[in-house]
Amino acid sequence: MASRSRSYTQLLGLLSFNLLLFTTSTAAVRVGVILHKPSAPTLPVFREAPAFRNGDQCGNQEADHIHIAMTLDTNYLRGTMAAVLSLLQHSTCPENLSFHFLSLAHFENDLFSSIKSTFPYLNFKIYQFDPNLVRSKISKSIREALDQPLNYARIYLADIIPTNVDRIIYLDSDLVVVDDIEKLWHVEMEGKVVAAPEYCHANFTYYFTKSFWSDPELVKVLEGKRPCYFNTGVMVVDVDKWRRGMYTQKVEEWMMVQKQRKIYHLGSLPPFLLIFAGDIKAVDHRWNQHGLGGDNFEGKCRTLHPGPISLLHWSGKGKPWLRLDSRKPCSVDHLWAPYDLYRSSRHSLEE
To answer: 58 and which of 17, 20, 93, 305 could share a cystine (Cβ 3.0–4.6 Å)?
Structure first.
């Protein structure tokens, strides 16, 4: 009890000290001292993850590395940390995982420190993504989160990562992996640029507008293609083929058409469908149990699809950390919770 009293007294003292600083800073402004604003919003604090080591059968050569790309969005950082932990925890060779993170330049130092303190042994690099590459090409979609520049960073991945990386797995931040990612890494691409779980018999009228369907020239693009949808939040990409095929430019061209004519609804997905629909290497559905975040409007709870699961993906509006914090979680959110490294302010004070 005495310990708690001392902690309370210390907190009061700290509060008084901060108020004094605030008063002093205010006075400093009056005499012309310039106070700099923080370069980034205050990031959440995370517990340090355990160290994960390779099994005896793991190689230690460059060819043994598994390259994984993710974006670092300050609003989704809690999800990213959980995803990384899940990948390490279920990997036979966790030290062979190489992470390539894309972030906005003005947050880079803060994000680096956050990742390094949470995963001291992680093999990773952060690359600056210039939002001006895509900002003028983005059209307003059905959900604001889909319109953020980082949501389009995957399009430029092949131009940003080192040229010696010829294959990469791209993953969204709102997922956890519950299987060894090496199994997905070794998928036989069969000459395709992209490999992903594929869902055929899709209703493409859902993705494209009347403006698209009323134009015979645009409709021709889908003629002869199998009506197959894939979620771009989980993809294996042959980076060499992507570069040689100039697919970044092809996606950009469709984005410019969208800007002028509004031919589709959903963020960055439809350009991928216009280019790759029915022409990817299909991967077992177990590698993207998607839609757990509900739809893009209300984010209502959804149940798991039947069958084996290697990856759980909260695509849609509802995110597990937000629903858990609001004390209104869906049942599937409890599958995400064990990977949450977030150290709440209440937890920190109690320590």
So the answer is: 93
